[in-house]
User: Fold HTH lysR-type domain-containing protein from Prauserella flavalba.
Amino acid sequence: MELHQLRYVAAVADAGSFTRAAEVLYLAQPSLSVQIRKLEKELGVALFERLGRKVTLTTAGEAFLEHARPALFHLERAREEAVAVRDLQRGRLAIGALPSVGATLLPKVLADYRAAYPDVELRLIEHNVSAEFERMVQVGELDLAVVRAPWERPGITGRVLIREPMVAMLPPGHRLADRAELDLAELSGDDFVGMQQGSGLRSILETACHRHGFTPKVTVETEQLSVLCGMVRNGVGVSVVPRLVASGYEPTVRLNDPRDSRELGVVWRAGGQLAPAALALLDLLLTEVRRFGADTADTTVDGLGLGV
Assistant:
């Protein structure tokens, strides 16, 4: 049994004639008759009674069409829904982002996306640990995630978006606040404000300090970037973070070692094709990253072909 045969039965029943049904279907009448006979043979029962030029449904035909019509209706609805998702007239998209990305790169991206595709449902999840986002992408809980590069979990793929320098966030009036850049070792004697243990930003801080020969004395740790900024601003300590994290905070001083940097990438599940909704958001994200890189002389943006 084939889908077009169901449509043919409904058309003949509505027209009451093979000839008129063939005209409606833009089909040669003999071809229509062949298909109906083929279906009747498969079912082992006649669907129509032929009374001269007129045809009517048999009892079996009425029973068959009672179920065939709803099936045809739902199949057409399925086609329409699939086309709507393809054309971004509906759909769902889940994206994960580190807090610093959610506060800087994503607001304009999501605003532009909502303006262009208002009927696509967006869900944004923020998390401090890139590895958790990798897991969520791998198991299909997220369509896309912006994470710290390099990513390590098998079953996901992606590309580096941006390479940004680390900066020192200093309290106003700090002895190094007027410098253009500094060596991280110059802060070895300062108290530090850090993100909580286990977070990506805490790992970046400790790795950078160890590279320069000391362990940071973290006197206050927090889960919130806003708290970190407030603590530094009020002289509780200094902090060292990627440039995006410090966006809007003054004073900041760039670290002079190019190894003190962070790479961010966007990842998705490997082995499949990105859905239209995800591709559209990825395109807007790449556009915003290019703009951010162009506006920021000390930020490097990779060559951003989609490569999906």
